[in-house]
Amino acid sequence: MADTVWWKSGTVYQVYPRSFQDSDGDGIGDLRGITRRLDYLAWLGVDAVWISPFYPSPMADFGYDVADYCGVDPLFGTLEDFDALVAEAHFRRLKVILDFVPNHTSIAHPWFVDSRASRTSPKRNWYIWRDPAPDGGPPNNWISNFGGPAWSRDAATGQYYYHAFLREQPDLNWRNPEVRAAMHDVLRFWLDRGVDGFRVDVIWHLMKDEGFRDNPANPGFTSGQAEINRFTQVYSADRPEIFDVIAEMRAVLAPYGDRVLIGEIYLPVERLVAYYGADLAGVDLPFNFQLIQTPWNARSVAELVVAYEDALPPGGWPNWVLGNHDQPRIAARVGAAQASIAAMLLLTLRGTPTLYYGDEIGLAHVPIPPDRVQDPWERNEPGHGRDPERTPMQWDDSPNAGFSVGEPWLPLSADAVARNVELQCDDARSLLTLYRRLLRLRRDYTALSTGGFRSLPSSNAFVFAYERHDADTTLRILLNFSASPQTVSDTGAYGGAWTVLLSTHTDRASSLHANDLVLEANEGLMLIRGWS
Ligand code: GLC
Ligand code: MG
């Protein structure tokens, strides 16, 4: 029987709040703006909206440096605005998922202000303080994810504090039960306000090696990579003790019913699946970023999908992600023609899909002039910045694409007048229409949302073919990863037995006549067995 838990059958849509919709003309998106656009999300056909951080923050890392876990930064609005957003979302049957950032706070958080004040402060042990190495340098060789040492010496007490990211983002000490209790209260604060779950920021980082051993050198490191890759993160992350921490979070959510816990985890498949936990006591969905990291061709993607399916623990529910606020846009990576293939892949694989705002209209890489760079990572390590995938949503052809009446905090893409929601929503051939149709089919066919998956053998190296099925329906998906027509002759007799349910190429006829099937260049097809 199909499992109907919402976070298994549903689709998640990520909103980066600075860039979705501005309501007050300051050029920065806000909560009221998101509320205004909920009708759009309902129309599109997603089921949940995950909102990146909107908490009070000095914005050193644009909200991933939290100064108060239980508030709303005035830039984004008020708690009343948040409550209204939740109510309006729920009215439209949309779930609301918050971004929970437990690994680190802002240096401006009162806990850290207290912690750094003296070695005997009651909050001293809420963060990670160590004496200098004998030579006065940092306690070990750990590197910040944004480049440079992960330790900063604090003049007030002469000790170093650890920060896996910016020096403005000190790591909390999750070995301290007081920290855990305080963070559980944060979860309850938002659960009591009606949120439907959390995406937990860098969850695999929470526990570090108790002995703070040096990380080993990474033999695969090459000079173009970010500095963090110089060492393999063996001791600074993915420690066995993490699973107790996650089980405790799950226990906090449990009394609230169907809430979801999603973990941000950048690890290879075999480590990633460990985060489902023993007896599935881990996160519900360990974010699967493999599609982002795998070369874009039919063979590699097919191998990845099968390897991931095989690695899942019994009962572990899969999930797929094509983009987020930290990764180059999918349309930039694979090109406009393949963006439709990516859409069909994301929304027809088995597992919960997460869409990143703007990908549905094909937003691509937006070049950022040097004087408009915002991301601190770009300043530390040029070329690694994330601004190009964080630019404002493009709604219509009014000034600033309808995002804001003020100057947007990041530039719009140059094609905003030609690439926006208003234009694409009425265009049967647009990417937005394709996304909407796919989302509609996921609701119409449980074979697609919660059904089984079977990879089909393909003699054509450019085509990835698979089946989705339940008791009533069998669907076949064929994706041409190449820019030339491809013939599929080895996956069965198509003439008569199968009907076209959806093609990325809207001019394709619905009936198939030949045994061989010819896919157009960059074409994706969804077929249904029978009813021709
Ligand atoms: C996560 C976030 C990223 C942030 C980092 C530090 O990876 O997605 O945007 O910079 O954590 O909080
Ligand atoms: Mg605003």
Structure described in brief:
The chain is α/β, with parallel strands linked by helices and 532 residues long. It has 16 helices and 18 strands.
What does this protein structure show overall?
With 532 residues, the protein is an alpha/beta fold. It has two domains: 6-104 and 176-208 and 236-376 and 393-440, TIM Barrel (Alpha-Beta Barrel), CATH 3.20.20.80; 451-529, Immunoglobulin-like (Sandwich), CATH 2.60.40.1180. Helix content is 25%, strand content 14%. It has helices at 6-9, 31-36, 38-44, 79-91, 110-117, 177-192, 242-253, 269-272, 290-293, 298-311, 330-334, 336-348, 376-380, 421-425, 431-444, 446-449; strands at 12-15, 48-51, 95-100, 129-130, 151-153, 160-162, 197-200, 260-263, 285-286, 319-321, 352-356, 452-455, 463-469, 474-480, 486-488, 498-503, 517-519, 524-529. The strands form four sheets. It has an eight-stranded parallel β-sheet. The protein starts with 5 loop residues before the first helix and ends with a strand. The protein binds alpha-D-glucopyranose and magnesium ion. Residues 22-24, 26, 28, 30 line the site of magnesium ion (MG).
